[in-house]
Amino acid sequence: MEGAPFKRNWSYLPELVLHWISEKVKSIADFIRYRTVCSAWRSASLPMPRHLPPQLPWLMIGHKLNADQDDDGKRLFYDLWKDKMHMLDLPEIVDKGCSGTHRGWILFVAREGREVFLLNPLTRARIPLPPFTFPVRHLGEEWHAPLHHTPHRFSPHLHFRGIKMIFSSDLTNPDCLITVFLHGQVFCYRVGDLCWTMVKNPLKNDVADATFYNRKFYLLYHEGSEEDIVIIDSDNPNEKIPCRFGFKLGNIRYLLEGRSGVYLVAVKYLMEEGLEDKYELYQFQEQSLKLKHITDTSNTTIFNTNNFRFLAICSNDWDCLGGGSMYIVMFIPVYEGNDVVGHRYSIWSKKLEDGELEQRRDLDEAPLQLIGPDETVMWFQPSLV
């Protein structure tokens, strides 16, 4: 009809143009929406794109409101970049504990450790891991030894929450080593292994934290221990390098793995001086076995939900981040009159230099929690790879 408005059919754009558009999308949430427009747009984009930059973390929150509510597998994810809450329906995780995250993958553990698997909640890819009920080997043992001859086991009383997890490379690499730090003990697993392997603690002191970088395990000890760090070579576990730095690091210390090495964060309590906590950042020098104090942290933002769930990113990549700070999650009571009727989660940032707190966001979209803080609350860096 003459004069009728022209309507463009966007599904008939040339495939080359659609592919060019898809590579201009930088947010993972926008990229997922792009692929759902129509079949032509979906086929013109890669399901596992490599052009997406590292994403700002999402905060994963359980949807369970009280102790009597059944787990329905639904989980809320607060998208820091988009300032938006996403709800994902994940029926495969019903009654499974969320124990740790790394590079877009979440570690889920069934009751008593009878089932353990990795899940990417965006792609729904799943990788089974040996149950924590299996015997474990010690690093350096002969692999041809029968599994039932191995006397070492996980403690049946372990609480499989708050697990720190590190990948040595992408999971697509068959040589990828998955390392977990659980209740002061370090375990690792490579695809094809029959069971977990324990990295034996060479000291009598308890391990405060651990990480894996450049084919080496780094075991960090509490203040007052015989050594500050012991390095164990995964290819030659009999080679152990003790490190003592000769100065106090702080009341609490933990390790971060970065693009250019291993970092250490030391927390010093200054309450007796009328100040907030002070955070100091160090980089471990692999050649000299010393720590380099990083005085300029303006390019560093750390995300924290509890003592073993830390994530560090480059602040300069994100205009919305304040560098030299740590993002933390608080559980805030909600009152009606003088009565507490529930709690909400709130995101705050804390300056590394002086501990000064600033409220960033109340998560009002999340349901009012009627029970204590959800142990599954943790930062998760989304990825489609």
Automatic annotation (TrEMBL):
**Pfam families tied to this protein:** Beta-prop_KIB1-4
Superkingdom of this protein's organism: Eukaryota
Give residue ranges for domain KIB1-4 beta-propeller: 77-328
What the entry lists under InterPro entries is as follows: F-box_BR-signaling, KIB1-4_b-propeller
Per its record, how is this protein called by name? Answer: F-box protein (DUF295)
Q: Which organism is it from?
A: Rhynchospora pubera
